[in-house]
Design a protein that fits this description.
- InterPro entries: FPF1 (IPR039274).
- Belongs to the FPF1 family.
- This protein is α+β, with helices and mostly antiparallel strands.
- The protein contains two helices and eight strands, in the order ββββαβββαβ.
- Strand 1 and strand 2 form a beta hairpin.
């Protein structure tokens, strides 16, 4: 096991295998869904709607933007833990998101970006 052992303020040690400056900082995200770091050293990300440079901070904002782009909320009674959007009944494009925005992670953001490339971008919070 190589890496750096770090002790937090409670005296609990944890191993950081690939240390970076960010991996030593344990901060709570300012908004739910922006603290998407899943590994030590991974930076939080935020989803940005490019035409207005708006940071998406809730599903209400996201649904409004996706609806403008032609996406429709999919009525999925068989999966109550998901919110899904589809492009049209003839399309295979589907975006699946967790019901709680607090569980909105970077891979959900990138799924939205891939399917709406000119309209969304994932950024570091410091660059927006």
């Amino acid at each position: 096991m190589s890496g750096v052992w770090v002790f937090d303020k409670n005296g609990v040690a944890r191993l950081i295998t690939n240390p970076t400056r960010e991996s030593f900082e344990q901060k709570e995200p300012p908004y739910p869904g922006t603290g998407t770091a899943t590994a030590p050293g991974a930076r939080p990300r935020e989803l940005v709607y490019l035409p207005s440079n708006q940071v998406i901070r809730s599903y209400t904002e996201l649904e409004h933007r996706l609806t403008e782009l032609g996406w429709t909320r999919y009525p999925n009674s068989d999966r109550p833990d998901l919110i899904q959007f589809h492009r049209s009944h003839n399309s295979a494009h589907l975006i699946s998101l967790p019901k709680s925005f607090a569980n909105f992670k970077h891979f959900h953001m990138y799924d939205i970006v891939i399917k709406n490339r000119p309209f969304f971008q994932v950024r570091d919070p410091t660059t927006s």
